[in-house]
């Protein structure tokens, strides 16, 4: 079984779908594994780490991730800030897309938009299903993440376009 040190060494390679799935397969069984997975993602992408995401579920083409409601992500109205919600939407769409890629492929976000449907309070979860990608093909994919509150009500909806293609070496 890999050690935390060896998993951390894989951090620079985390964006590869193989390593993403390997890390999750180890961490999902560990106490606090979802929080640790979020910290690793946050170390790779520091701004993403600002919302302290917690991975709840990760499968090829699917993710569910949560952020706690805390002062650092709130606005002056005492609800979760619009940009914190957008950050969570980007994390969800990115993890769903990246977890579906085959070897030698990579993705980059080219468009992100949000609809804010109601004030977001309490822990917010984002869920995203990504379409299967075609190995070796450079193509844009549109994905959507629904952000829900603890009552299961959709508070925001993220729509992202990811450009997928062969990794350049």
UniProtKB/TrEMBL annotation:
InterPro entries: DUF4442 (IPR027961), HotDog_dom_sf (IPR029069)
Domain of life: Bacteria
One Pfam family here: DUF4442
Protein name: DUF4442 domain-containing protein
Biological source species: Cystobacter fuscus
């Amino acid at each position: 079984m890999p050690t935390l040190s060896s998993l951390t060494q894989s951090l620079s390679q985390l964006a590869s779908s193989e390593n993403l799935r390997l890390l999750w397969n180890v961490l999902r069984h560990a106490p606090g594994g979802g929080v640790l997975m979020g910290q690793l993602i946050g170390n790779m992408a520091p701004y993403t780490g600002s919302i302290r995401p917690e991975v709840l579920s990760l499968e090829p083409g699917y993710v569910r991730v949560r952020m706690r409601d805390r002062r650092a992500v709130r606005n002056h109205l005492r609800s979760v800030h619009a940009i914190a919600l957008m950050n969570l939407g980007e994390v969800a769409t990115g993890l769903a897309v990246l977890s579906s890629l085959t070897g030698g492929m990579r993705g980059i976000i080219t468009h992100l938009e949000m609809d804010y449907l109601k004030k977001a309070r309490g822990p917010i979860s984002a869920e995203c299903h990504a379409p299967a990608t075609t190995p070796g093909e450079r193509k844009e994919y549109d994905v959507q993440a629904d952000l829900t509150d603890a009552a299961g009500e959709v508070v925001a909806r993220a729509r992202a376009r990811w450009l997928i293609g062969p990794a350049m070496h």
